[in-house]
Every structure is written in C-alpha cells, then in structure tokens.
Amino acid sequence: MFKLFFLLSPFILFAQNAQIIYFTDAHQLYELDDIEDGRGGVARLKTVVDIAKKENNETLTIHGGDFVGGVLYGGIYKGNHMPIAFNQIPVDIFNFGQHEFDYGVDHLITLINQIKGTFFTSNLVDDKGNSFHQLPTYLIKKINNQTILFIGLTDQMQTTKKDSRVQQSDLFLSVEKVFKQVKNQLFNQIVVISQMDLAKNRELLKRFPAINLVLTEEVDEYNSQINYVGKTPIIATAGNMSSVAKINLSSHNLPQIEIIPLDKNTIKDKVLAKLEAQEKNNVEKELNQKLAVLEVDLDAFQSLKTESLAGNFVTDAMRDYYKTDLALIDGSGIRKNVEKGDFTYKSARTLLPFGNKMVVVELNGKDFKAFLEQNILSEKPKLIQVAGTKFIINKKSNSIEFPHLENEKKYTLVLNDYNFGKLKNYTRILIGAEDEKSIEDYEVLKIYAEKQQIINPKIENRITIIDYE
C-alpha cells in the first residue's frame, strides 16, 4: 500500500474549486410524509441543483445508488418513473446500489437506456469477467481545470436477485486495478462513490490513502453523517433523498462540505412539483382499495426475531394460493408494520413492497431443513418465517430440530424468487418466476385478504427458540 501511495502522489495538481451535488437512496419520486411537511422529492432536489449551478455552472450532480425498488413506491413502479425526473434535474453520474438489480438485469438495462447521465462501475462484472453491461470502470472529469478520478463500488450484491450477468468483484482489488490502469495520469482529486458500510469505507481509506473523498450510502434514514479517516471525509446523506451534500473540492484545502436538507425550507421546482403531485395521486387511488378488515397489528420487525403474526399471515397466503405443503419467507422480506383496521392494497404492498415473484418447487425434507439451517445458523443469521411445519432453534447447541419433517419425503414448497436464488438443492421446479402462474407476492396477499375478509392470524408455535439462559 505504501508503494501504491507513492505511486499516486504525482496525481496531485493545483487548480480552482470543483463543485459536486451528491445524493443517494432515491427510492421515491415524491416526498415521504413521515415528518412534518415531508422530506425528499425530486422537485426540491431540482431547486438545490439549479442554485448550485448558478454558483458554478460546471457543478456535477451525482447519485450514489438505489433508485429501483426499496420502499413501497419503488415496489410499485420499479424505478420506471425516475428517468424523466433524473433527466430534468439533470443527474450527471450514477453509481449502482444493489437495489438497482431487484427486478432483474434486463429491467435495469431498460432504465439505463432511458437516462442521459453516465452509469459506471469499478467492481461489478459479467459472467466473463468484463465490466457489467460494458460500462466504464472509472470516470475522469475535468471541472474548472481540475481533473477528478471517480471510482464506483457496490457491495451486498448477495441481497438482490441473482443473475450470472452481474457479479460482485472484490472491492479493494477492483480499486487497485483502477489505480494500475491510470497510473500514468495526473489527478487533482480521487473520489470514490460507494455503496458500502462505514467499516469498509474506513478500510478503503486506510488501504488507499491517496483518495480525497468518499461519497457513500445512507447510514441513517433521517440524519446525514460525515465521518473521517484522518482528514479524509466519508459523506453519507440521509435516506430516501432526504438531504444532499454540496461539496467544494480544492487542491489547496480540505473539501468544504454543506449538508442541505430537502425539507419544508426548500422551495419546490414547479414543473417537477406537478409531476410529483400527479404520481402521488395515481398511487393513492390504486392503494386505497379496501380488501378486508385486519383485527390485529402486524409488527414487521418481530419477523426478524421470532415467529410473528405478519410472518404467519404472509406464508399462509402463499401456501393457500399455490396449495403447497410448505411456504417460507425470510423475515427481512416483510418490511413495515401495518396497524389493525381496514386492510387495503396499500397495506399489502407495505408489508411486501419488493414485488417478488412466486416460485414453487418440489424438494426433499432434508433440503428444506438445509435451507433453514444455512440462513438461521449462519454468521449473519436470518430468521425464516414458515407455514405448513414447525421447527425449534436451540441456541445452546446452535442447531435446529424439525419434529414433523422427514428427510427423504418429497414436499412442495412456495417461496419468492429472491429466496429461491439461495435455495441450493431441490428436486424440480414446478412453477418458475417466468411462468404465467407466477404472480407477485403482494398480489398473493391481496387475493388471500379478499378471500378471508377478516384477517386475524395467531401465534401457533411454528418457531420455538431455546435461548442460552
């Protein structure tokens, strides 16, 4: 690394300031209404960008990643309504978040082709080891006579839909590869746009001290954070486009950073405000359709810890629709609480916002057991909610007991295509994600709710946990 540092030392030049507007996590076109007067939205973002360009007409606007999928709105439109807004702002540079791939590579490529800004990636490759979609592996931009090298990194690709056409290469080896490719060029600034956690960003700066700035994914939904390794900042703006960072880069001084909340104090651009209002109205009309009456609160976060009412409701709906022996969903796939009262289409999509397609397989009991063990007993455990069976987690022995499953007996199982991508062994696929019989998870929930009319799931000891005490 010391050799690499000295190799990069000649990159430092002297020039005038370069200005960047950075935002990330743009799941929803219009503002979120979970705080007074809302937060985020493309109309407020447009205003901030316009003001910045009046100050410096060569300002670069950068999106750090995750504009497809994620929240309820993302699940409905799958990013389809973002290109028109991004082009009007306009956004100049795009890095990828893993959620860009939630609805498949083909869907993402369609969106990329609609967006005028430049996508790039330094560590996502295809099945032949070439850059994903033949995109640039780095960008070099000249702003006000400053030359800036941009590197783009994406982590956590195991949490999105699997496809051999996009694979995650080692983060740090990918950075080293870029440095080798540009070793004979001079740069005023080296900027990394990363979708990585804080620990990996810190490690990145320790390994590559020539980096001047890291622009990364949100650390907190409502608050922006600036962390430092030495004097090098790691900037994480708030989630769901709630804030932007305005950064001035100078060869003579440390980066000047201003965090700008996209809240009630930011005037909305009139054209994009009209687009926001139209989209919000369309979504509300679709979502307010009443399906049933919910007699209990559904706590989504309980699904991460133990058997939950939400988990039982969702897996019962899946099993009922496809008439299978078993059903499963990982607890993290159930995203948000739903309060008792009218259960609407919005409620269904709130619980399951990603819109994953259903898959039905035949498998042996031992293969079903193996799937639960690989998730629940891993270093980063994920609890699995189930229907059609029960199991006991023994934390003392780090084992799982399955009282009602026979190893060699064949069972039918329904699960979403995300979980299917992690299922290592099965006998055969009965309904694949591309089959006409495969529908989205929230549609299964809608049909089940309309059929039941009264929704009142119970805890049935499907999951028992024996703790250390």
Describe this structure in words.
The protein is α/β, with parallel strands linked by helices and 469 residues long. It folds into 2 domains: 2-282, Metallo-dependent phosphatases (Purple Acid Phosphatase, chain A, domain 2, 4-Layer Sandwich); 288-466, Alpha-Beta Complex (5'-nucleotidase,  domain 2). It is 28% helix and 25% strand. It is built from 13 helices and 25 strands. The strands form 6 sheets. Strands 4-3-2-1-13-14 form a 6-stranded mixed beta sheet, covered by helices on one side. It has a 6-stranded mixed beta sheet with strand order 6-7-9-10-12-11, covered by helices on one side. The protein has a 5-stranded mixed beta sheet with strand order 19-16-22-18-23, sandwiched between helices. The longest helix has 18 residues, at 270-287. The chain is globular and about 70 Å long. Mean pLDDT is 92; it is low at 1-15.
- Write down the Rg: 24 Å
The beta-strand count equals 25
Q: Major beta sheet, specifics?
A: 6 strands, mixed
Number of helices: 13
Structural class determined from secondary elements: alpha/beta
Q: What is the CA-CA span between the terminal residues?
A: 46 Å
Strand order of the largest sheet: 4-3-2-1-13-14
Poorly predicted runs of 5 or more residues: 1-15
Proportion of strand residues: 15-25%
- How much helical structure, as a percent, in the residues? 25-40%
Number of domain modules? 2
> What's the average pLDDT?
92
CATH topology title of the largest domain: Purple Acid Phosphatase, chain A, domain 2
Keywords: Coiled coil, Hydrolase, Nucleotide-binding, Signal
Family: Belongs to the 5'-nucleotidase family.
Signal peptide: 1-15
Domain 5'-Nucleotidase C-terminal: 302-426
